[in-house]
């Protein structure tokens, strides 16, 4: 569900039988951009939409995503260093670890698509005083996707806009929660994906009509619809 931030109207929605939103970022962004007839659209999404391939696909489309990274590692809870503690230097193509050592890129890539580089320091790691907080392996390895710069730029945008996720919650959570409340404990009444999509479209239409009545009033809305 995509909601515009000024009037909180639902401008795009999709019903899918996929159990997560990881492949929906570009599709929802493009739908919203088309409906709003704007050249460039800023998209604020939660961590469920975080997907490097989707963020990369948004490049050059007019969809500018702001999606926080997913926190998949439990290192912070165990008092260990996390990926954020290793700072990338684009000019010299290396990482600097918390001990001030440089992790340089290895010659061999990994993963099936051959798109992941490994950075490590074979000399400094074994005798490092911070090793107990770093890695149980002989050497610490930091992985970097070949298009990681796209994600770095998005992270920089988020840091320049610290209120982004607050705006997202204030914008989308109310319409989503309202429609769920209307549905009640039964949620969707229809069966099959096509029929459920129709049911959802009716809920969205009803929500938007109620919002427009609140914003404009009944008579001005009727006049606008009659044009």
TrEMBL record:
Stored InterPro entries: Tnp_DDE_dom
Protein name: Transposase DDE domain-containing protein
Domain Transposase DDE residue range list: 96-213
Keywords, comma-separated and alphabetical: Plasmid
Pfam families: DDE_Tnp_1_6
């Amino acid at each position: 569900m995509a909601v515009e931030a000024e009037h909180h109207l639902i401008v795009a929605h999709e019903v899918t039988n996929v159990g997560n939103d990881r492949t929906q970022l570009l599709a929802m962004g493009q739908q919203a951009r088309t409906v709003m007839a704007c050249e460039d659209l800023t998209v604020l999404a939660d961590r469920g939409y975080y997907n490097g391939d989707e963020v990369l696909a948004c490049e050059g489309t007019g969809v500018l995503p702001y999606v926080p990274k997913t926190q998949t590692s439990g290192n912070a809870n165990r008092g260990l260093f996390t990926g954020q503690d290793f700072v990338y230097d684009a000019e010299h193509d290396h990482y600097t670890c918390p001990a001030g050592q440089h992790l340089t890129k290895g010659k061999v890539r990994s993963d099936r698509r051959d798109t992941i580089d490994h950075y490590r320091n074979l000399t400094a790691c074994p005798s490092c005083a911070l090793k107990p907080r770093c890695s149980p392996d002989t050497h610490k390895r930091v992985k970097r996707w070949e298009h990681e710069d796209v994600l770095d730029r998005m992270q920089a945008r988020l840091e320049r806009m610290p209120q982004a996720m607050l705006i997202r919650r204030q914008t989308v959570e109310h319409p989503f929660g309202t429609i769920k409340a209307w549905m009640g404990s039964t949620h969707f009444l229809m069966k099959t994906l096509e029929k459920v999509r129709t049911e959802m479209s009716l809920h969205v239409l009803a929500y938007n009509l109620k919002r427009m009545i609140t914003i404009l009033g009944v008579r001005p809305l009727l006049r606008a619809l009659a044009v």
